[in-house]
Amino acid sequence: MDRPVYDFTIQNLGPAQIPSPVEQSRRATLYPMHYVSDDQQIIYDIQTSAQNPCNSDPLLIEKAGPRRQIFFDPLKTHAAIVTCGGLCPGLNDVIRAIVMCLWYQYNVNNIFGFQYGYRGFIQRFNIPPIQLTPKIVKDIQHQGGTILGSSRGFGQEVEEITKTLIKHNINLLFTIGGDGTQRGALNISNYVRDQKLPIAVVGVPKTIDNDISFSQRSFGFDTAVSHAVKAIDAAHIEAYNSINGIGIVKVMGRQSGFIAAHAALANNDVNCVLVPEVQFQLEGPYGLLAHIEHRLSQRGHAVIVVAEGAGQDHLDKANTTDASGNITLSDIGPYLVHQFKNYFKQRQIDVNIKYIDPSYIIRAAPANPNDSIYCAQLGTHAAHAAMAGKTSVLLTLMNSQFVHIPISLAVSQRNCIQPQGELWRDVIATTGQPPFNPPD
Amino acid sequence: MDRPVYDFTIQNLGPAQIPSPVEQSRRATLYPMHYVSDDQQIIYDIQTSAQNPCNSDPLLIEKAGPRRQIFFDPLKTHAAIVTCGGLCPGLNDVIRAIVMCLWYQYNVNNIFGFQYGYRGFIQRFNIPPIQLTPKIVKDIQHQGGTILGSSRGFGQEVEEITKTLIKHNINLLFTIGGDGTQRGALNISNYVRDQKLPIAVVGVPKTIDNDISFSQRSFGFDTAVSHAVKAIDAAHIEAYNSINGIGIVKVMGRQSGFIAAHAALANNDVNCVLVPEVQFQLEGPYGLLAHIEHRLSQRGHAVIVVAEGAGQDHLDKANTTDASGNITLSDIGPYLVHQFKNYFKQRQIDVNIKYIDPSYIIRAAPANPNDSIYCAQLGTHAAHAAMAGKTSVLLTLMNSQFVHIPISLAVSQRNCIQPQGELWRDVIATTGQPPFNPPD
Amino acid sequence: MDRPVYDFTIQNLGPAQIPSPVEQSRRATLYPMHYVSDDQQIIYDIQTSAQNPCNSDPLLIEKAGPRRQIFFDPLKTHAAIVTCGGLCPGLNDVIRAIVMCLWYQYNVNNIFGFQYGYRGFIQRFNIPPIQLTPKIVKDIQHQGGTILGSSRGFGQEVEEITKTLIKHNINLLFTIGGDGTQRGALNISNYVRDQKLPIAVVGVPKTIDNDISFSQRSFGFDTAVSHAVKAIDAAHIEAYNSINGIGIVKVMGRQSGFIAAHAALANNDVNCVLVPEVQFQLEGPYGLLAHIEHRLSQRGHAVIVVAEGAGQDHLDKANTTDASGNITLSDIGPYLVHQFKNYFKQRQIDVNIKYIDPSYIIRAAPANPNDSIYCAQLGTHAAHAAMAGKTSVLLTLMNSQFVHIPISLAVSQRNCIQPQGELWRDVIATTGQPPFNPPD
Amino acid sequence: MDRPVYDFTIQNLGPAQIPSPVEQSRRATLYPMHYVSDDQQIIYDIQTSAQNPCNSDPLLIEKAGPRRQIFFDPLKTHAAIVTCGGLCPGLNDVIRAIVMCLWYQYNVNNIFGFQYGYRGFIQRFNIPPIQLTPKIVKDIQHQGGTILGSSRGFGQEVEEITKTLIKHNINLLFTIGGDGTQRGALNISNYVRDQKLPIAVVGVPKTIDNDISFSQRSFGFDTAVSHAVKAIDAAHIEAYNSINGIGIVKVMGRQSGFIAAHAALANNDVNCVLVPEVQFQLEGPYGLLAHIEHRLSQRGHAVIVVAEGAGQDHLDKANTTDASGNITLSDIGPYLVHQFKNYFKQRQIDVNIKYIDPSYIIRAAPANPNDSIYCAQLGTHAAHAAMAGKTSVLLTLMNSQFVHIPISLAVSQRNCIQPQGELWRDVIATTGQPPFNPPD
Questions:
Q1: Do residue C174 and residue C55 come from a single domain?
Q2: Do B386 and B299 lie in a common domain?
Q3: Option in C242, C243, C356 nearest D361 (CB)
Q4: Residue A91 within any structural domain of the chain
Q5: Are B221 and B178 in contact (CB under 8 A)?
Q6: pLDDT tens digits, chain B, 440 residues: what are they?
Q7: Catalytic residues of A
Q8: Are residues D363 and C234, on separate chains, in Cβ contact within 8 Å?
């Protein structure tokens, strides 16, 4: 088996020659600081087998962390933070951590929050940035959403955004957002490099779907799963308490079904998980409808969890995109409800279908403690990376270590459930669901 | 002002001549029991004013509680419990309390749970009752729904139900359900009385909407409000974080808007509450649409809570009823979303509408401690009432006292928000919303 | 049976002759306001029986609510709010409601929060008041505690406090606190009346123990019970999972055991409730120790909930008081643990005792939705009362109506569990506990 | 820097020659199963640097997962599960997963739960095992604790335990417990091997303190941190609302302070974290007391989180051990309270100290969804390992992969916070606390 070869080389704005103030900072009084040096790396592919013996020259990824020498002079540094796209638990935690680290560890006191995504950089919208201080961000982690607001789109207006960065003397740009946002960040980063502007662009990838590549886990995902579990609990109770009760819960997951899969594993009451990565037939002896009929005849109730992007081949394509460029999905949830109703009507079986779409209840939740800690670490490491002059990078966790990943690499592909992999194996074992397809 | 005159007279199956075993029961060892006698009553109308001076002969309601003499011989008593209609937090708590009180306080050891509502009494469905014991109900209060299952309808099949009651030697029938259920209970009660069968029918009114008459508060309502508040929190976060964000939350409330009103009071972030009791215009200078446009121009976001039964005059009537006989409502939630979208498109204003329908997440929740205590008290008092030979009664709380209310009286009208009353006054004061109608 | 006679007469500062601005306020645009007039009253004692027939001239209590005429000119009115004593869920909700009502309904824009209890009025501590506005109080209900801080004592320094009131031109003083606080408020109120100062003193009674007289329920109590229930759940799990496991949970309740009793009713896993109102023996065949030994031999585990003020007769009196004048209690929790350990050691029975003292976890919680609504209503009614010129009154809920109670009446006695009453009857029925005393 | 060399060699009972039934099992109908082979391994040390270049022959750890060939014939297999030591969130999830995997994937239908730890194997206690089936374990994950009960000790009675294993024809022994438990498991495993008995002993390490070696994360830890965070929130509110308020929270952590450290990172309101790994002085200009005095003078309140094993050098050693052999710790919590009281009394500064010990509230909680998923995976992998004939192994997560670790290796050392490492660096940066020791 050929392994793919990835280029993990990190861009630096230039030599980092300014001694870091971290050790003398207000927050680390008297404590010796343990810096990370650029030669500290971690092995990317840690799995070996007889066919895939250990590589003596493995792919290595740069470790994140505070550097002994930094690139930017703290006193002259101006930072900008922007949050883009849909809400996700933990946005405020990340903002808070960037501000706290820059302020207390580096004494950077000019930090601006640009509002409502990239739109906040576009002059014609006339949305002023807000100054961020420890006092302002102190308690924001307790509330969901982002104090900076968010919106989709405008990541292509690179020139306009750069003009605004120059106008505010920005040296550090932190982009918290998904795929499209980070593609925009890469374009900005390339553009300012061509202009020889000393601006570091550091991204913190945000995707409630957990589908970012080269990231072990996306922030907010654990919180999202917790809330999805509650919706499934309700669907189970409703289904269980009715004669031929069918509970259907739609969760987020446009192109990957991680929330659906994890929530099903945590809940244990789910009988079918439908995800974008695994096609399924509705009709026929192997189809979902016949399976649920069989399940009802055996147990009297059934619970189905469906990711929003599952089964799109069954639906008429909308052929439109939203402001972020995401293809508009047709709604699989009501479609399934409709199909079940028709099917059982024809079969003359009375069923009770209860459909739950928790949607924004999940997105708008504040981060749970696990995500809070993770967001704090991501934000802090992002601040360290930017001060050290790293640019065009994302902060992620890989093999349980915080690392720098080139944005270009991370946006080149999407993380998906492997139908042959361990997660899907666990889902099958938990739900007992068949493939919903005729055997080959 | 004429006050309505209600008849609170309670039906008894006959003289209660058997000494109550409660004082000697396993659960009250050595403690003197404080019985309630039939002459203990509470005043119905406790408000007075200059126009409405104190009545020297006020309407009185019978207090609930254990009686010194009971009607049924515990050793020969068989009890049946049934839960009907939609789920509601606390159903299992009520079941548990009835079983525990009958078993431990009265030594009644033949208690049957009839499954899936009145359907469980209908022979042709062939659904056997389950025997209920302390061991079985011990921990059921921790789970939502009802261990007996539920369904709608079949309350008219009085003869069939009675046949089943006779077949199982049932003396006590506990009906936990809404309006339709209790109408059924009344019919059964009348029928068995005509047949001179010694069967007590005691209802515990269930309505998540809190719209039962002669009941200060319906069980599960407090839990429902708590969960509605969480959905509104999410809507607020979503609206607040978008440019011109509009959060719309639909909550339960077919004919009364108590959940919407209370959730708005608890949350404090709601700008409009729409309830069935108060009509509103959408169009025109006084309409909802113009008001929201104004609000967006001032504050940039808005949150609307709508009870499912609100604004039905704007919708095409479905003209159908469900199995419980409830009129099928057209869905006001998506209708509002549609109207807002159109309006702001015409006005060429970009808005971000986020719609949340928490639905079954609310219904299927287990009772919170406040509702748990209340359900335990309702169930216990229902058991006391039935053992004492009360029949055709509901257990409710009035003026903070547990009382017996004739079913016929309770189902004669529905509880609603008074647009001139204190609750709606508080809502207006909290939301600052105008009447959405032109001044008279 | 003689009924006690209480004097519910309300003090008014004088005739209320200024038209209320409420109907024209920002928050009630166009809505007709439904004022409450001073002759609207509710019946105090609503229970009747053969021995206690209906009184044609019953005791009446004044209803709270907005008045058509008010005493204070809003433009010249300065208000002060103070929170005293131990924390309690809902303090911030009450503060918020008073500010919101004064500001939006009455256009009173000079509202001061005096910090750290009455200490904030004492010059030598030099603690400046903070100006309270809607912007400041907007979201405070989401956090526990009180934004004004709190402390005990200093309620006797009436002259000093009055001097500060005069210095800040205060006309309305809102005192949120317990028994001692309201006694202080009464003294202040009497003193300023003697000085002919037009200052209304309105209290909102705060007691997490629910032991305030003439109040159906104290704010924060429901939240406190919810959290106590969680601690009991843990104790039950620990006891249940050990051989001869004994879980002991101490909850608040200095002179009344309402939290202990309600939490036991909600939880259903409690085997003994110990409260200050009911004495118990430890030793002897009827004592607690022998009972628990018996329980362990039957069921292998036991759960005990003890109010902090229970069993003080077993302990050496500390004979000291805290800054609020409360008698310092000796700690019954560790004492019980010690007694159990000794007893079972002597009996040569291995037991596993798990002691939980949730203490401040309960006090510092934010209010749940139920308490939030209640606090909002209490605060709003307090503002209406003060603006109308009522003074020396507390806002409470009686027979489910908001009413004005003279402070002098409310502090004259404490609310306790009646060992002969319905609450204790329900506790006994739930726990099955014997009296822990030899029969008379 | 020399790296330690560990021996990750796994013991197998013998050649696994029976085809696995997993692919044909009830739960994996029609799905191809993706087996893991014994040559699949993961790299142990994934960090490299200039000084520590990549090793071409790195240490490798065996991957866990279902094997194509198994050692035990399912039809003849009898399994035993035991839970030992203190409670920890997730115990029931692990039990459930083992039972579900054995039953549905391997058709093993003889599964016994031995009760109250190793005590359940000791004849003289006469505690019968309970038969475990899917029906019994179906919903147990919703409750805290362990349905098998737990206790400490008796792990040395190897002969006695083996006799019981033989008596019940046990082939698979699953030991869920801490250090002492797994040492016992190793002894049993060695003993049965010497006796040539075909018994696989597979452990799932349990430590709420997260201090198990060769395990990235212990189950229940995330849930424990979540609950510790709530206690710290309360302490913060109490401290913040008092004049010179000091909130002290004691959390679990006998020899490692992971819960204290993580909870502080999640909470952000903590000013000092005290852990067993880092000594601190109380007295003197660099001591904790002086630091808190300074903090109070600056900010008026302080929050301290202390792990139970911290500062034991300040206390009189109890010199006793509990039934598990753990050294009995003297109680640092009350000791700190006492020291603070004395210090500030001498300094004549009024302080308000609020001490919270959430203790069993944390231990007895049910697992949160994150821990639930993890426990399910641990239990499932443990079942796979045992069926394949692996013995003397623990199931853990390393570098985000489930692996087999020799028990002997895992119990050879304990996981601790590295004072020079990244976790402690993050704690310092968050709290801003100094070293509490004079500079070297």
A1: yes
A2: no
A3: C356
A4: yes
A5: no
A6: 455 679 999 999 999 999 999 877 655 555 666 899 999 999 999 999 998 888 888 999 999 999 999 999 999 999 999 999 999 999 999 999 999 999 999 999 999 999 999 999 999 999 999 999 999 999 999 999 999 999 998 888 999 999 999 999 999 999 999 999 999 999 999 999 999 999 999 999 999 888 888 999 999 999 999 999 999 999 999 999 999 999 999 999 999 999 999 999 998 899 999 999 999 999 999 999 999 999 999 999 999 999 999 999 998 766 666 666 666 668 899 999 999 999 999 999 999 999 999 989 999 999 999 999 999 999 999 999 999 999 999 999 999 999 999 999 999 888 999 998 889 989 998 898 988 988 76
A7: 209
A8: yes
Report yes or no: B59 and B6 within 8 Å, Cβ to Cβ: yes
The answer to whether residues A193 and A228 belong to one domain is no
From chain D, the residues in CB contact with C151 under 8 A are 242-243, 352
Whether this model's ipTM surpasses 0.90 comes out as yes
Structure tokens at B63: 């207090």
CB distance C387 to C103 below 8 Å: no
**Amino acid (1-letter code) at residue D438:** P
Q: Which residues are paired to A331 by β-bridges?
A: none
Quote the pLDDT of residue D420: 86
The reply to whether D245 and D110 lie within a common domain is: no
Domain that holds residue C288: 222-364+420-431
The answer for residues whose C-beta is within 8 angstroms of residue C88's C-beta and 6 or more apart is C206, C207, C208, C219, C220, C224, C363
Same domain? D123 vs D233 = no
Claim: this prediction has a pTM higher than 0.90? yes
Note if C371 is an active site residue: no
Contacts of B365 in chain C (CB under 8 A): none
Q: Could you please report the per-residue DSSP string of D219-238?
A: TTHHHHHHHHHHHHHHHHHH
B93 vs B140: CA distance, rounded Å: 7
Q: pLDDT of A66-102, one tens digit each?
A: 999 999 999 999 999 999 999 999 999 999 999 999 9
Catalytic residue among C39, C45, C194, C209: C209
A3, part of any domain: no
Neighbour count for residue A94 (Cβ, 10 Å) = 30
Closest CA to B152 of B268, B321, B329: B321
- D404, D411, D61, D394: which is closest to D204 by C-alpha? D394
Q: What is the CATH number of the domain that holds D35?
A: 3.40.50.450
Q: Does residue D289 sit in the same domain as residue D167?
A: no
Is residue C2 domain-resident? no
- Average pLDDT, stretch D71-88? 96
Contact A395, A204 (CB under 8 A): yes
Nearest-CB residue to D56 (from A56, A60, A63)? A56
Say yes or no: D110 and D166 in one domain.
Answer: yes
Query: D312: domain CATH number?
Result: 3.40.50.460
With contact defined as beta carbons under 8 Å apart, do B416 and B278 qualify? no
CA distance C79 to C259: 33
- Note whether residue B62 is domain-resident: yes
Strand partners of residue A404? A395
CA distance B291 to B272: 10
| Among the ranges given (B138-142, B357-361, C2-6, D401-405), the one the predictor scored with the smallest mean pLDDT | C2-6
Beta-bridge partners for C202: C174, C393
Residues C303 and C173 in one domain: no
Residue A361: its chain B contacts at CB < 8 A? 230-231, 234, 356, 358, 361
Q: Beta-carbon neighbour count of residue B243 at 10 Å? A: 19
D309: which 2 tokens? 């094993």
Please indicate whether, in this complex, the C-beta atoms of B29 and C434 are within 8 angstroms of each other. yes
| Encoded tokens for A255 | 């192109």
Sign of CA dihedral C93, C94, C97, C103: negative
Q: Do D241 and C359 touch (CB under 8 A)?
A: no
- Spell out which residues of chain D touch residue B143, defining contact as CB-CB under 8 Å: 142
Total count of domains within chain B: 2
